[in-house]
Structures are given as structure tokens and as C-alpha cells.
Write a structure and sequence with these properties.
about 400 residues; alpha/beta; Rossmann fold; 2 domains; seven-stranded parallel beta sheet; 16 helices
């Protein structure tokens, strides 16, 4: 979809493998570029791969068009084995970049980021600034060897054809800095709109009743896609080790493992203590009526869900992995547990339950920590990068 506008403006391209990456993580960046007077185009796969619904993708596409943003579909796959789609995407991106003479290209996603940067090699020689945000390298401490073999050499090579490489956590920043071939920045993700999750917001107590929780229940909540990576199974197994019916687990989200985890909860005789809430558009309200947040992911870049919970003033139990450790210090805002340590999660949950009166300090620490991760702070960092 093309604009009819003919005014000569500086041009920027925002690219990601899937449309939801733009929708969920780059709205503020697009607004900054528009405010700076850029003509902005978006390229992504608008037909498949998004973690949002097809209806939301279509709605978002129209929202972009209504704001005067150019929207272009490119069939970037999420699988390395779809070679034909990767090659087609490369040709489409290269043709678009060579035609438009963009002043700035900002790309995201592992495959999309690689394909885009390779397609921009000629444009860089003409002066196009190429920025890549790594939303968590696939090679990290504890990652499978195949991830290091596949992704590490490619990212290191592509850094040489990148002007600015943005990392969102400390581990990735240190690793990229060691390459010494690119200007590396540390920008902690997209941040969090702390005002939306403030402790001052009005609590809707009826929500707790709607979910059939009593005032005596101690409710742990997690949000995100129900998947192997998000590791909700660990908490279901941890709950089965706790002989206390008042401790319950609210899972917000949907995903391919939902049916399997419901069967597991039944098999472990904890189905009455595990509540699958499905997709919810009122997560900020739910965070105000539960008692703690639990986040057992196996892999993260810098988790927005965890930041939102912290901004809401919830004590946290999370896996001891990159990204989470950028946000939580063990024993201060919550507890860190090894990702598959079911007994460790159970012990941490009981620790919070048994020391309810001492949770106020954890709440204070997490709210205070999130002030430096507020979107206003992050956006100021991005403004400086776009101005370079």
C-alpha cells in the first residue's frame, strides 16, 4: 500500500520478520521517526507467523496506513529451512531499499535482521544508516550448542555491515562489544508504561471474584504464550509439591501447550488450583488483584511481562536467566530459581506465602527499579540514536 504524498521527506524503513514484532515492540520508535519528520515505511510478513491474531494484524495494518505509514508485505519466514522465502525476501528488500534511498533502516528479528542487513550493503555505501536491535541473541549462556554453531558466526559477520547494534540486556551487550566491529548500544527493550501499572491505579476487586479466588487465596500469576519456552509446566509441577490448597496459579495467555498442560494439572491432581484464563486484554488490572508474579521462562531477551509486574508492585519469582537477572536481584524484589528446579520454585512460593507481611519491601524495590525502565527514559535513548 503506497502513500500518495509527494513531499520530499527524509525516509526511514522499519523491518521485522513478522507484523506483531512491529506492533508490540516498535510503535514508539515509529512515532519518534514520524515526529522527526521522517516518511516511514514498514516491511514485515503480514500473512503468517505473528503471535497476535490475524484480525489484529489486519487492524494494525490499517492503523499504519491511516497514519500515513507505507506498508509492504515480505514473506520472511521464521524457519531457517525455508530457503526460497528467505531468498525472495532478500530480493524484495534489496529492490525496495535501492529504490527508496532510505536515510535510515532499523531492522529486527534474527532472520529478518540478517536478510535486511545483507540487502542493505550497497545502500550503506551511499550513506544509509543501518540499525539492528537484537531482542535477545539465540546464543547465550546455557543455550544449546546448535544455537552457537548456527547463529553466533552469522551475527558476528553481520555486525560488520551494521552501523548501530542495539542490545537489550547486559549479557548480549558484553558479547557484542567484544566483536569491536560495530557501535554497540545498550537500550533495555521498549521499557514499560509505568503509569499504566501504577500502585495508585484503582483496584477492581470484582475481578478476583470472577476468577473464583477467595480473599484467603494466595495467587501467583504469569502471562505469555503457553509454550515450552515460557515453561509454565515447571510451576504446575511445583504447585503439586505444595500441600496448601490456598496457593493457586493463574495462567494468562494461550498457546500450543494449553491442552497438554491442562491434562498435566489433572494428572497431578491440582486442576482446581491452576486457572487457565486465556487471552486477556486487561492484564494491567489483573496484576493489581493477584499476590505475586511468577515467570519461569527458559529464554528471554528483556521480558516486558516481568517489567509490567514489577511496575505493578508485585513480588516476583523468576528463572535465573539472562534478561530476568537484568531486572531482579535475588532476595530483593523477589527470588531467582534455576529454570527446571521444580522444588526450588515450590520453596520460593512458600517463602512468599509464609512471609506475607514482609512483601511490602519487595513491592517498593520493584516499583523503584522500574522507574529507570520507563518508556519515557527508553524513548529518550532511541531519540539520541535516531539523531546520530
Amino acid at each position: 500500500m503506497k502513500r500518495t504524498e509527494t513531499t520530499k521527506l527524509p525516509k526511514a524503513l522499519m523491518l521485522a520478520s513478522v507484523a506483531s514484532m512491529i506492533d508490540l515492540f516498535n510503535e514508539d520508535n515509529i512515532n519518534i521517526l514520524l515526529d522527526y519528520g521522517y516518511s516511514v515505511d514498514v516491511m514485515a510478513n503480514f500473512e503468517e507467523g505473528s503471535i497476535t491474531s490475524a484480525e489484529r494484524v489486519a487492524q494494525y495494518k490499517q492503523e499504519l496506513v491511516d497514519r500515513g505509514v507505507g506498508v509492504y508485505h515480505v514473506p520472511i519466514p521464521r524457519s531457517l529451512f525455508k530457503i526460497r522465502n528467505i531468498f525472495s525476501s532478500y530480493k524484495m528488500i534489496k529492490a525496495k531499499v535501492d529504490k527508496e534511498n532510505y536515510n535510515l533502516v532499523h531492522c529486527h528479528s534474527p532472520i529478518g535482521g540478517v536478510v535486511c542487513r545483507l540487502a542493505c550493503r550497497k545502500a550503506r555505501k551511499r550513506g544509509t544508516k543501518v540499525i539492528y536491535t537484537a531482542h535477545g541473541f539465540h546464543f547465550f549462556k546455557g543455550a544449546p550448542l546448535k544455537n552457537w554453531i548456527l547463529f553466533y558466526p552469522v551475527e558476528k559477520m553481520c555486525a560488520k555491515v551494521t552501523d548501530i547494534l542495539i542490545t537489550i540486556n547486559g549479557e548480549d551487550y558484553s558479547r557484542a562489544k567484544a566483536w569491536k566491529s560495530v557501535d554497540v548500544k545498550y537500550v533495555p527493550g521498549i521499557g514499560v508504561h509505568t503509569d499504566r501499572f501504577s500502585l495508585d491505579a484503582v483496584e477492581d476487586s470484582s475481578l478476583r471474584e470472577q476468577l473464583n479466588f477467595t480473599t484467603d487465596d494466595f495467587v501467583f500469576m504469569s502471562t505469555g504464550q503457553i509454550s515450552v519456552r515460557k515453561n509454565q509446566e515447571a510451576i504446575i509441577r511445583a504447585i503439586s509439591k505444595i500441600n496448601n490448597p490456598k496457593i493457586k496459579y493463574l495462567i494468562v495467555g494461550t498457546g500450543e501447550l494449553e491442552k497438554q498442560l491442562k491434562l498435566l494439572a489433572k494428572e497431578l491432581n491440582v486442576e482446581n488450583r491452576i486457572i487457565f484464563a486465556g487471552y486477556r486484554g486487561d492484564v494491567n488490572k489483573l496484576l493489581r488483584v493477584v499476590d505475586a508474579f511468577i515467570f519461569p521462562s527458559l529464554q528471554e531477551g528483556l521480558p516486558v511481562a516481568l517489567m509490567e509486574a514489577m511496575a505493578s508492585g508485585l513480588p516476583v519469582i523468576c528463572s535465573n536467566i539472562r534478561g530476568n537477572t537484568d531486572l531482579i536481584q535475588h532476595g530483593e524484589g523477589g527470588y531467582l530459581v534455576e529454570p527446571r528446579d521444580y522444588s526450588g520454585y515450590a520453596e520460593a512460593m512458600l517463602e512468599l506465602y509464609d512471609n506475607y507481611d514482609n512483601l511490602e519491601e519487595m513491592r517498593r524495590v520493584n516499583v523503584e527499579t522500574m522507574k529507570s525502565f520507563d518508556t519515557k527514559v527508553i524513548n529518550e535513548q532511541m531519540k539520541k540514536i535516531y539523531r546520530v
